[in-house]
Amino acid sequence: MEIIISIGAKISEYTVEPIGRQMGYLFHYKSNVENLRIQIQNLKCAKDKLQHSIDDAKKNGEEIEADVLHWLSRVDRMISQHTDCFVINEGRANMRCLSGQFLDLGSRYRLSRKAKKMAAEVGTAIQAAGGFNKVSYLPILQSIFEVKGYVAFQSRMSTFKRIMETLRNPNFDTIGVYGMGGVGKTMLCKEVAKQVKGQLLFSKVVMVTVSQTPNLENIQQEVAEKLGLNLNEKSIPARADRLRHRLRQEKKILVILDDIWEKLELQDIGISFGDDTNECKILLTSRSQDVLWNDMGVEQTFLVGVLSFSEATNLFNTIVADTIKNPNIQPLAIEIVKECAGLPIAIATVANALKNKSLPVWNNALQELRISTPTNIKGMHEKVYSSIKLSFDSLKSKEAKSLLVLCSLFHEDANIDIEHLLRQGTGWGLFKGVTKLEDARNKVVTLVEDLKTCCLLLDGDYSCCVKMHDVIRDVTISIASRDRHMHNFGSVAELEECIMDIDFRESTAISLSATDRNCHLPERLEIPKVKLFCMSSRSRPFWNLFMRFYDGAPYYRDLTIPNHFFQEMKELRVLELINICLRPLPSSFSFFENLQTLCLWYCDIGEVTIIGELKNLKILDLSGSNIEELPKEIGQLTRLRLLDLKYCSKLKVIRPNIISCLTSLQELNMDGTFIDWEVNEDNGERSNASLVELKNLHQLTALYLQIPYPSILPTDFFSEKLERYNLVIGAHVRYVGYDFEISKHLYLKLNKRDIFNEHGIEILLKKSETLFLNGLEGLNNLVHELDGEGFPQLKHLHFENNGGTQYIVESMEEVHACSAFVSLDILHLERLMNLEKICHGKLTEKCFGKLRVLEVDSCDKLKNLFSFSMARGLLQLEEIAVTKCKMMEKIILYEAEDDSQNVSYKTIQRIQFPQLRTLKLCSLPNLMHFYSQVETNCKSQRKDEQLVADFSLSFFNEKVTFPKLESLKLKGSASLKEIWCDQSAELHGDEEPLFVFSGLRGLTLSELPNLMHIWDDNYPKDRAFVSLMILQVLKCDKLKNLAPSWISFQNLIMLRVSNCHGMVNLLTSSTSKSLTHLRVMCISGCKSMTEIIANEESEMGGEIIFNQLVGFEVRRLPSLSCFYSGSFMMVFPKLKYVGISHCPEMRCLSRGAVSTPQLNKLTLLDEVWEDEGYSSGDDFIWPDRDGTELDFDELSLSDDEVDNYKQVQELIEGDINSTIRHLWEKDQVGLALQQLFME
């Protein structure tokens, strides 16, 4: 009986319970579907929350983590699946009910079951959204070596070549370049850096200036930043250990230390590569060979000598241009060139000073060059001194001379910001008669441009910055010291040496640009005539002052100032302190009756009430300091023109009515700081400032402000007077990245647009050069509704998160064309869910005429990007990126201008994008063509019409050309069958086939399941794809082979093919012979591939040589029998790494002879190893035009990376064929090796 009961229970368990569960899907249909709807809504909220973090990260230039992107993609599929399976079907079911039809129980069962399963998956996704530790990361900045003005002089070519040869030689680790100041050592080394990166000799090149007074901490910091390393340690030895550990992780790196004056202990800095340094080298430059040989111990040195007379003459004549044609000047030119002694910097400065000058000026210049002698400047050639002094004396403007002297007070190799010079120059009284700061700023820019024209200043590393050549700086410091009593000291010790000097009391300017934070300052400095005093702690370099790379990190503020230090500086007009402890402010501040500019940057500040006594102050800048409260006494500064509080993150209190008292204020900067504005209520007391106070500042022309809530904006707050602004309204954004050369930035995150007119925002919209729009629901036509004039000044437009806008530009009149965005440089459109067209209607020729970058993301109703009439005007376009636009079918839509329906192949006009360099089209499932015609309803087709049909089969055709295209990525388009069509036969005579993409350097094809052909068989062999360096083909199942036999990949460096299950082989042997520069190859997941290189039956004896191949992998290729089965000998002279995984039929590398002289072992990858061995995802940073961004150490697997996933097999008698055959045979009996070679 018990057995019967047990059997019955089991029957119930296996029948009744499952039946009940299945019936439950029918009974709980509504609750399951409703539960899924709620879960989907929660998922959308989680996605939106995460998207906000992503948006902020992107605006800060950060990259998004791969797992976050994967989560977003997965969530998009879930939401789309819910819409397709439930929202649409539910609507259909309701319609059937209304029409009296019976419910489809089968459908209800399936949907209910699917809803319950999806709800569980959605719940897991929601939980995962809260598990991300971070959504983004800061990418390592790639050093790009711009060598502006470099001339490859014939006399230096042999030196240059020998330096390059030595860098290739594994027997040399440290190399030196020496020569006198101004001879061109730095320029030559920058060219070396550029070339070694382009030739892939090193994966990374780091160049740092050491200078005459080296700052070890700054050198460490600069090297670390270029390696993407955060140095959090405080002491120099600890930082050195951290840096040393990071450098030893590099396989091939070149570190260039420029301008070394004396012995520098590299170990103390942390520049050390360990024992195996064959691939890592150091290049040093100095004015002294003794320093290189004796102090630094370099193994090989190279002299950079002066130019030959003919080279010097040619350089001089090129600069002075037509002036040299005057026969009376020509003999003077010969003598002047002789006086320059073959030194490039002397020639350039003198030539620029004399360009377009009259004969008497030339005569005087020659005389000045002959009588000038250098003062005591170490390493200075007398001819260099005299030539630079001549250029200085030749400056017509006293203001230009004074500005150049100000620049010399900065530390060596400093990036000198225009805003920094504005603050110093204004306080110093440099701009006589100029009362407006904007006029003074324009004056600074004009003077800087004049000085750059004279070669006395150089372009800085960042926009709005300049630099000084160290030789010009030395001469200018000498002139400033001797003639103007302006001194630049490298340390307090140097300062103390001069204190007892009689002339020191005559000093008018003192700069202590790199003070050690542990030093002790004298109790007071008796320099009664000083007008400018600048002091900076060593712990923070100057180039961060104006927030180029602000990260909010704490700075050392150990250096303190004695209470009476400034007591004898009563004439002081400019005081600049950087990274100093000012708790409390020295009482001697009260003696600054004449102070005009006070800058306390990144200082530790306590009580600042005493600043309110500085009644003549014009500029107060407390940027980055930790001030907590702005006291009421600041309101006494009625002459203040500029108040800068940016990035004072601890500032929480600004006493009421302080700002309104600053009636002379012209510029207010509160970027990244105070946001706790209070609303000005009637009869209500406030504890903090209100925005209404700013309305009393009638001279305000520049405003940098964050307003988190639009509701607190006063009526008519913004006015026409604003000439410079960066305003964030309606969003909590710590920092919005922007171009520093643009002066009007506006960021709006609003739910409605009816507040524009109330607060004056509409005025700003019309003036803005950069515009971020987030939201603005109810907006249909951007241009028509926000600015009928078409935003004529706008350069950058970023519009996102809007569900109503149909058109960005719509011509409201059929006859008259619309003119809009005539100055626009960058256009970014994202998540505009109702956008149907960017432009609708007729446009003028200038509309979008300056557009350089176009990015479109997640605009689901957009079917095409441009009409033909719009596209033909985009002559400046350099980059197109379109992603996740579900309805996108074509990029350019051709429409006959006369509205004719008779579109023939001949009548379709050609179009060219002459400047386009990057084209990225991803996740566009309906994309079919780049350029196609409007569909017609014609039933009959003549020959021409058939050509139109053929023309539309492929993605590209010769009707559209890209002469400068360098990077192409196509991903996630199921409709694409052909990339390039066969139209070459249509060309006649000498017509140039520009459509062959001869300049293309990077090509990625991914997730194109119906792609059958990539290349056009009729392309000219000598021009098609000859520049291609990176080729990736992923998940293209119908592709039979990679390339036809005619194609040549003579410049290909990296090849990756994955999950192309239709491929039987990869390349023909004839194509393989062209791969002379291939460095890395990875083939994986191709189920049908039997060999990598096809065996062509017509082959006779010969060899296939892969000259540069250093590594390749074959993984998960179940049908692969060998790499090559033909008769050619396979030669791999540089092959060092071979990885194999899951290739059970592979019995040898080649049926013929194989040569691998540098290969010692095979790496047998474990089954857990996947495609990320070479790169994560499909994106790859392919080389720029100089090849400077390619890093093969990151492509090939390091030993550390492989250790956890591999076994190693030493080559048997050095023969890879025998080794693979041995492993295959051993596999028959070895269980461990079975797991390595079988799926």
Notes on the protein architecture:
It contains 30 helices and 53 strands. The protein has about 1250 residues and is of the alpha/beta class. The longest helix is centred in the N-terminal third of the chain and has 33 residues, at about 65-100. Strand 9 and strand 10 (about 465) form a beta hairpin. The strands form eleven sheets. It has a 26-stranded mixed beta sheet, with helices on both faces. It has a five-stranded parallel beta sheet with strand order 4-5-6-3-7, sandwiched between helices. Helix 1 packs across helix 4, helix 12 (about 330-340) packs parallel to helix 14 (about 360-370) and helix 16 (about 400-410) packs across helix 18. The protein is globular.
Features:
1239 residues, alpha/beta, 26-stranded mixed sheet, 5-stranded parallel sheet, 29% helix, 19% strand
